Amino acid sequence: MNSKEIDSRLAEIEIFKDYINSRIDHLENHKQAAQRKKDIELFKAQQAQCRTILEYLDDRKSILNHVKNSEVV
Questions:
Q1: Taking each helix axis from N to C terminus, what angle separates 3-33 and 37-70, rounded to the nearest 10 degrees?
Q2: Residue 63 has pLDDT above 60, yes or no
Q3: Which residue stretches of 1-73 are H helix?
Q4: Residue 71 pLDDT > 80
Q5: Angle 55-35-49 (CA atoms, 0-180°, nearest 5)?
Q6: Is residue 57 within 8 Å of residue 18, measured between CB atoms?
Q7: Residue 57 CB: number of other CB atoms within 10 A?
Q8: Which of 21, 31, 51, 66 might form a disulfide with 43, Cβ 3.0–4.6 angstroms?
């Protein structure tokens, strides 16, 4: 994987992270509007899943940056 490919993947990760963050915000709005405890718990669980995805993406980003920085120029 060359530097250009890594940069492309890093950009894709940032776009996906932005989408996941907007999804978390969207779920927060629904959670606040929810009346039933069951619905509130569902939105909390979905937000937790999104945060797990963000952690995974941050890990992938770190790995890609490490590979990029380790390349012999």
A1: 170
A2: yes
A3: 3-33, 37-70
A4: no
A5: 15
A6: no
A7: 16
A8: 31
Q: What would the mean pLDDT of 55-72 be, rounded to a whole number?
A: 92
pLDDT tens track for 1-47? 788 999 999 999 999 999 999 999 999 999 999 989 999 999 999 99
Please check whether residue 6 is in contact with residue 68, taking contact to mean a CB–CB distance below 8 angstroms.
yes
Query: Contact 1/67 with Cβ under 8 angstroms?
Result: yes
Residues contacting residue 13 through CB under 8 Å, at least 6 positions apart: 57, 60, 61, 64
| Structural contact between residues 61 and 11, judged by C-beta atoms closer than 8 angstroms | no
